Amino acid sequence: MSQITEFRDKVMATLRTKVPTLREVEWYDGLFDETDMEEWIVNAPAAYVAAIGVPYNDPHSTGEMNLCLRMVVTVIVEDRIVARDADPQCWDLLERIADVVNMNSFGDPNAAPANIPTLKRLRDPELRRQGVALGVVEWMQGFTLGTSRSEAHEYPHHPDTGKRFDKIPDNLFIGESTVRRGNLVRDDRVDLSPPDPASPYLGEDAL
């Protein structure tokens, strides 16, 4: 799965937990039109998250790519009790989302803490007449993508996926050698396979 879409999903999961008044939190591609808004209004108050890639000039010293993701959360709210009360509701949600976002890496080891977010109310006369308020929270997020060339020399990586091994395979053994001392010949083998749980030699007294 894409690392960027995984990160976007973590942002969405965080908003669902931290801003429970949102009826829906979903992703979109950064573009929307009147048809999209008609569908979004049905689920208001709702938030829609987009990740937009922006090039970063400085490469990482160990070989990974440094990206600067432009993250956008679009919030849509509808009048609830009295006319035009969608406006304060929208500002309240924008402020709460910005507070969650600020300096947050969303539990992703590839993400730097988010830069200070920007809050905007999108003004549209037709939406106002419909009792709908629209706003966005935007921020930049440093993101590291790719494989560390330095780490590749220090740790084994799977040749097909490029992923670092996080545990020793069960059937791994390291090396075989033959020891000769006079007429005595002995084969040595360092085996890291897990021991058989049924073995009578397991336990504190095992040598």
From TrEMBL:
Pfam families: Phage_Mu_Gp37 (PF08873)
Top-level taxon in the UniProt lineage: Bacteria
Keywords on record: Plasmid
Span list, region Disordered: 185-207
Protein name (Swiss-Prot/TrEMBL): Uncharacterized protein
